[in-house]
Write the structure tokens for this entry.
Amino acid sequence: MNRHKEVKSASILGIIGNLVLLIIKGISGIVTGSEAMTADAFNSAGDIISSLMTYIGNKIASMPSDDDHNLGHGKAEYIYSLLVSIIIMLTSYKVLKDSILAIIRHTKFSFSPSLIVVCIITILIKLFLYIYTRRICQKQKNLLLEANCKDHRNDILISSLNLISCICAMNNIYIVDSMVGIVIGIWILITAVKIYKESYDILMDKSAPEEIKNKVYDIIKTHPEIKKVIHFNSNPVGFRYHISFTIYLDGNLSTFKSHEIANNLEKEIDEKVKEVYLTVIHVNPWEE
């Protein structure tokens, strides 16, 4: 199964799983009046939108290059992950607002054993989604999927805190419910800001990390005929990078020979460094 098909499968599974959780959390939150459960339901609604954005972004990113998009459509992943982060921020605002108002108004809710059952079901479903998504994410290095993976992980913690608030409610300690709602809201906000920053950096053409540059330089060092390297530039193309640089070769070499060396080096880098989408090398003559 190729990269885009695996991401598609993970996003569809995320939509289905979060839809189930939204329904049971929403019903439970409305019936009992629990702020923590209601906040968790809003979180699941945001997760559905995130998974949907992942599906759409991945579909666009999988389109091949064309005359209007010479380097493909890979940046769609980051445009949609940026949208996901904004949606998550709005979800965080709603959760924080409702939880703080609940503390101010001393809101209580009707405890029900169903709240504990919902929390346990949520933890189990999210644990499965996290393990499944993380496996694909580690393999495919997809930022959209990484955002979803972090979201599943956060939901496991959130639902665990929600479970604690339900246990406290059994002993008539209701303020914990609203406090958990606030913790959930803050956690969601932190996750959203991290995703936003990662997406923003890529869309602003942040250069390739040193790890990738070092891989390229290690290959260049195996070619003693290359005297010098300057003007190393890189810009992201989806989950990979387009790189270019200038090499200096013996000025006495023929034009054919010098360009043959550059062309072979381009092919070698593209084959050996999986993070590189395209390599372009300019040749200058070296004078002792």
Summary: The first strand starts at residue 228 and ends at 237. The chain has a mean pLDDT of 82. The helical segments are 3-32, 35-61, 76-104, 113-140, 143-170, 175-203, 210-220, 255-272. The CA atoms of residues 248 and 284 lie 5 Å apart.
